[in-house]
Specification:
alpha+beta; single chain; disordered N terminus; 21% helix; 2 domains; Immunoglobulin-like; 60s Ribosomal Protein L30, Chain: A
Length: 242
């Protein structure tokens, strides 16, 4: 059996980069002392999950990164495993560990980091053509229905537009490259219009708002990876008039 420990220098430097943002972090571990431990049993796919609850809820849904610093494996086997954060909410998330084929893991653990960026629009920085990403706007899966977690972010846009009554904006919806082009274009357009409808319902004049879907045509990250596709599924607004 071989135990692998990963250095902490990278983790500590990563923490330093996030100190300006709302962030929480902690440790996690799965070992044979956990009930139902199956990562060392048999062949084929084996999955275990560990729920993490934040000490305090975030103001908006955070991004979560999971890092490995401890891995106890059978050195005679190939190493095939995957670790990811799923079911992320303002209150917590779930760490999912999957291994397959003949890989046997007797213990695994490390650190998790959760960060959320707050939308801050400073009046003196506003310029025509400036685009601002709304990082905390969420929809039902494959639909254009706004989820309640989106309201705090959108209310900041309402506040900004009320404080700057001459500003006009375009709301842009974007998708990843999964699915048919026509479907993605329609979905992104409907999501942009859902955001527009919410702003209008809060008292913003419809004449100050345009909504348009761009589908997959304007990616900001590689679609080859899960994290890239997640970044590409977004809503932005662009200043059209000051």
């Amino acid at each position: 059996m071989k135990k692998i420990f990963f250095g902490l220098v990278v983790i500590l430097s990563f923490t330093t980069l996030l100190t300006a943002q709302e962030m929480l972090s902690g440790q996690w571990r799965l070992t044979q002392s956990d009930g139902g431990f199956s990562l060392n049993a048999g062949n084929g796919d084996r999955i275990m999950q560990k729920e993490i609850r934040f000490a305090k809820p975030f103001e908006s849904k955070p991004d979560v990164s999971v890092m490995i610093s401890f891995l106890d494996i059978d050195k005679n086997q190939n190493i095939r495993y995957d670790v990811k954060a799923i079911s992320v909410s303002r209150d917590g998330f779930v760490i999912r560990v999957k291994t397959w084929n003949d890989t046997k893991i007797f213990g695994i653990g490390g650190y998790w980091f959760a960060e959320a960026e707050k939308l801050e629009i400073k009046k003196e920085e506003i310029q025509v053509g400036q685009t601002i990403e709304l990082k905390n706007v969420f929809f039902a899966f494959n639909k254009w229905d706004l989820l309640p977690e989106s309201y705090p972010e959108l209310n900041k846009v309402v506040e900004f537009l009320n404080e700057n009554p001459t500003v006009e904006i375009e709301l842009a919806g974007h998708t990843d490259d999964i699915g048919a082009d026509a479907y993605n274009m329609e979905l992104s357009d409907k999501r942009a219009n859902s955001v527009k409808a919410y702003l209008v319902a809060q008292g913003i004049s419809e004449s100050r708002l345009r909504a348009k879907g761009y589908g997959k045509t304007k990616p900001i990250a590689p679609n080859e990876y899960d994290w890239g596709r997640e970044k590409n599924r977004r809503v932005e607004f662009t200043i059209l008039k000051k």
